[in-house]
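Weekend entry, working from home. Most of the wet-lab plans are on hold until the incubator is repaired, so I used the time to fold the two sequences that have been sitting in the queue since the last round of cloning. Logging both here for the record. First:
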Amino acid sequence: MMPPKFQLLALVLFALAMLFIENQIRKLEESRAKLERTMARFELREVEQRQNRDTVRESPVLSESDDLLIIYNRVPKTGSTSFTNIAYDLCAKNRYHVLHINTTKNNPVMSLQDQVRFVRNVTSWKEMKPGFYHGHVAYLDFSKFSVRAKPIYINVVRDPIERLVSYYYFLRFGDDYRPGLRRRKQGDKKTFDECVASGGSDCAPEKLWLQIPFFCGHSSECWNVGSHWALEQAKYNLVNEYLLVGVTEELEDFIMMLEAALPRFFRGATDLYRTGKKSHLRKTSEKKPPTKESISKLQQSDVWKMENEFYEFALEQFQFVRAHGVRERDGELFVLTQNFFYEKIYPKVN
């Protein structure tokens, strides 16, 4: 028999030995688990890389963000040049293409064959994706041509009388964008008020009929002056087919909201508009505000009432969208961050 003190020492040593062995076993198990996780991640990465290589080899498609298309079918004299220059200034930095749609004699209506050509070009021209297309073209419904992905439409509208006055003087005096270019009505010194008083054709109420048909589209009824069907169709398209429609008077807010919604294209646009020289590039020369009498005479026409109804409809929709996406703090507007999240996700993942 061993003396009691040696027995106690032996038990202590045995216990220490067991603890040491258990600790080593635990470390080995942790190392094995770590190694298994590392191998699993490596295998997963290998599978993903192999799938990516196979995908590229089988179907060289663009990523979702690079497949985006924006069409800005700009209405004349609504501040479209100022906004378009923002897109040109950002395209290299944000890696997208800008293309101007130049139609013969600035005709906003395309022939049927040109509609087909345009839709095919825009949707299949991979080298020009992502792309920002702009031009004085009426809305074109891509869904009629059985394409898989429709472009994102945006636009800007303006008070109809202010737009007409700006266009009237633009045809006679041009602007500060290309001051040397001779305009169609150059040399005509008659003011807008004089034109209204004499019943001239360039200031007739029918000349107000432009924003409605641009949003209505390529149907013949869209271009029938005073068509109530065209007005309702323009409203429908504005709400259902356009991502955002701004107003000239609040162009900065329009740009800020686009930057928040589509940073792939418009990252940096708000600062560029506020500080860049091109943001206020184009201003109509020699423009004189109309008198109350001229405005009142135009406002008596049914065409003005319809165009103004459409403008106010667009303004209300824009202010509604802005109210749900923008807040004011210390006199400055800021865009709200993401205000939704996901929960109760099933089935549960271990």
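Second, folded right after the first finished:
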Amino acid sequence: MKIRLDPWPVDTQDGQLTLKPFAGLVFNAETDTWAAVAPRDVPRRLEQVLVVDGKPRMEARLLLDDEAGGLSLAGFGAYVVGAVNLCPHGSRQAELYGVAAQRILAYSSDTPGTMLEPARLSPRNPHTGQLDYHPHRFNGAQLEGARGKVQRLMLDAEATLSSDLASALPLDEHDPNALPDTLVLQDGPVRIGGAGRAVLGYVKTLHTDYLGADRIGLLGTLKPGERTPVLRFRVGDQGGGADSEGREQRFTWYVRLCDPPFYQHPLAGVMRLEMHAPDDSDFVPRGVLDIANLSGTLLCRLASAPHKDPRAPQNLIPTAALEHAMGRAMGSPELVTRRIRAHIAQMYGPEAVA
């Protein structure tokens, strides 16, 4: 028995590797030959790449007490969605795009007659700005309902931004001009309902095994920049017949970003990629195949290093820079908490009630 390390630090939410078997069916899409595909250069036609990510944060849990004595849960939260605009050929500096905080007052919809107004937290010093929280209902009365609502709003904003920034992607098999001029790299899987755009989801953690025991061995033999052939699956497929086939089809493939040290597991340095697939298709559109071919070269250029990022190499350099910018946009959590306490004291404290 060999003991190998998971490369990610133990204080992250999840490890880099879990590999729960996918319950549904996975089909060959590009070829029936299961072998490594060599990396190719990034064509000049691809003019810009935008890395999109989001960051949620809960800032206070609330308990709402109505006049009839009913209690319900709520919370102040915030999220930021933004992008890094970069040239894949290195001809210009990268730029941040659209990084701005949105603040949410999430409350349960289970309390009849509850309708919260926007909350404006005005500071004593006008130069520090106002915090405007916009009310949003969440279903149920669970303790984590407010957090889930903030997360959902962030994911929806991510999907909208990715779709708005990405070029249209023809789903034709032979179009020679199918490679877009603008490609969006979106942190995480692509979202439901976003087909037809050049959005490439990159999944940093390997929590689901789409390959099975007979194919997963190829991942450990990939060289940096090499990829697997493109596969196809259906989101949510539980392998239980027509009633559980899932909602939308996806293309997926794996890319190696770097060789792992000998003490890490052999899948360290491997990332899974994902794009929308047309329904009932038995081919890979030319644009998707072109993106798959350049993905290894592009992502190896953007991969982080262990001495700079503990989640290297999967946490891309632009992603790490964007995470820092999003944290600054949301502000100091300690100062925000103080502002919330001061607001509640002003609105509902003894002086306000008197």
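Plan for Monday: verify the second prediction. The chain has two domains: 17-49+171-321, 51-160+324-353.
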